[in-house]
């Protein structure tokens, strides 16, 4: 099998490529990534000389390039996106271009090249925000995106489904909750707080810290994507979640404990605009149809993740001081 992975130099995509190469070493992977601020080839350094792995620097909005690459693969797993909510609030242009137009470009190439198998990576944020006692999101929950990021992802989900209904494109979609694990860009809650605390810096909790997210280890997410690719029903959506709802303050206290720091490191700052209150996922469809459920407990996963950030200071210090871009600019100057 030959896979085109988009956004494979980012957090979840890079973990997916490692997962795939470990489990299916004879498969071939082409990784198409524009290397935005979030793309980092150091995440895949160990695969550089693997003959079954190829990196292509390019944009998913580039019709010609995408067409050439799609022609030559059996399936596309589409991770590439602008992924950070706060950035979408300050400037949403790239979110619209990459998440909507970029997805459309890939769908067109998949359609024109013989209806290639297409798996779209999406998010639980498309369903909007829950109150404390509301039932969890599932595949039948109406879409109600509330940030430019989630609106752009919702739009891409609609396009993917439209290509199934209109052209019979063999698609599947996964809507997953908040991921954590190695190689996550230190702008997201867990890596930002872990790296700040290791550096002795304060950690900015938005509002009262009572917003709730459902946390899943990135390996559980990627195993779910694998099972959807292998056993998922064409045209269907699968919700994947971690069975681990926590308030931001609960997470903050756990990270403080794991890094040996005290409450005085917390700085309460202004709330995010339109801050979604709670996300929660009912993954019973994935459990029933695929036999998938998360296997990594939050306690264990977080402990290992914080240990990874403790041990990988070279990786994230280069990101925090901007040095990480030099590595690939030498090799892939565009
Ligand atoms: P990320 O920001 O870490 O990585 C995104 C990658 O996409 C980067 O390598 C970047 O260079 C690349 N990219 C961006 N624009 C591109 C373009 N125009 N052309 C080619 N490459 C481009 O994101 P992530 O957290 O790994 O998220 C991956 C996917 O998973 C996204 O689609 C996101 O919406 C979804 N998702 C993320 C989470 C989460 O908690 N992080 C949860 C559910 C779903
Ligand atoms: O639910 C899935 C989504 O999870 C993905 O689709 C997104 O790509 C991913 O970024 C993530 O979105 P969130 O907005 O939930 O993640 P973030 O890490 O930005 O924030 C998690 C919570 O922590 C949220 O309630 C805001 C809060 N927060 C975040 C940051 C960065 C803080 O309190 N302080 C911070 O500095």
What does this protein look like?
The chain has helices spanning 11-23, 63-71, 85-90, 93-112, 148-167, 189-198, 218-231, 248-259, 284-290, 298-311, 313-320, 324-331; strands spanning 2-6, 28-33, 53-57, 75-78, 117-123, 171-176, 178-180, 203-206, 212-217, 237-240, 245-247, 266-269. The protein has 334 residues and is an alpha/beta fold. It has one domain: NAD(P)-binding Rossmann-like Domain (Rossmann fold). The strands form 3 sheets. It has a 7-stranded parallel β-sheet with strand order 3-2-1-4-5-6-10, sandwiched between helices. Helix 1 packs across helix 7 (218-231). The radius of gyration is 19 Å and the shape is globular. The model has no long low-confidence stretch (mean pLDDT 97). The structure holds nicotinamide-adenine-dinucleotide (NAD) and 2'deoxy-thymidine-5'-diphospho-alpha-D-glucose.
List the helices and strands and how they pair.
Elements: E1 2-6, H1 11-23, E2 28-33, E3 53-57, H2 63-71, E4 75-78, H3 85-90, H4 93-112, E5 117-123, H5 148-167, E6 171-176, E7 178-180, H6 189-198, E8 203-206, E9 212-217, H7 218-231, E10 237-240, E11 245-247, H8 248-259, E12 266-269, H9 284-290, H10 298-311, H11 313-320, H12 324-331
Helix pairs in contact: 1-7, 2-4, 4-5, 6-8
The structure holds nicotinamide-adenine-dinucleotide and 2'deoxy-thymidine-5'-diphospho-alpha-D-glucose (DAU).
């Amino acid at each position: 099998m030959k896979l085109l992975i988009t956004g494979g130099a980012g957090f979840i995509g890079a973990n997916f490529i490692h997962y795939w190469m470990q489990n299916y070493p004879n498969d071939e992977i082409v990784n198409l990534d524009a290397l935005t601020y979030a793309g980092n080839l150091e995440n895949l350094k160990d695969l550089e000389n693997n003959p079954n792995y190829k990196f292509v620097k390019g944009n998913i909005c580039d019709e010609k390039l995408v067409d050439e690459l799609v022609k030559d693969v059996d399936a596309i797993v589409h991770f590439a996106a602008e992924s950070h909510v706060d950035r979408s609030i300050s400037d949403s242009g790239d979110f619209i271009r990459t998440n909507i137009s970029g997805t459309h470009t890939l769908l067109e190439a998949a359609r024109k090249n013989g209806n290639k198998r297409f798996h779209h990576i999406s998010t639980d944020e498309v369903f909007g925000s829950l109150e404390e006692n509301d039932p969890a999101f599932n595949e039948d929950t109406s879409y109600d995106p509330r940030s430019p990021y989630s609106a752009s992802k919702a739009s891409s989900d609609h396009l993917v489904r439209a290509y199934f209904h209109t052209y019979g494109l063999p698609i599947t979609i996964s809507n997953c909750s908040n991921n954590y694990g190695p190689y996550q860009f230190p702008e997201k809650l867990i890596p930002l707080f872990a790296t700040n605390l290791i550096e002795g810096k304060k950690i900015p909790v938005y509002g009262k810290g009572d917003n709730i997210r459902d946390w899943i280890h990135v390996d559980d997410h990627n195993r779910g994507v694998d099972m959807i690719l292998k056993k998922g029903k064409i045209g269907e959506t699968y919700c994947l979640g971690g069975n681990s709802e926590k308030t931001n303050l609960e997470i903050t206290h756990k990270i403080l404990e794991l890094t040996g720091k005290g409450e005085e490191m917390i700085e309460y700052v202004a709330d995010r605009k339109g801050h979604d209150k709670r996300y929660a996922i009912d993954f019973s469809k994935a459990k029933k149809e695929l036999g998938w459920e998360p296997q990594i407990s939050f306690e264990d996963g977080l402990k290992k993740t914080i240990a990874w950030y403790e041990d990988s200071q070279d990786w994230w210090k280069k990101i925090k001081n901007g040095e990480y871009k030099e590595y690939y600019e030498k090799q892939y100057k565009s």
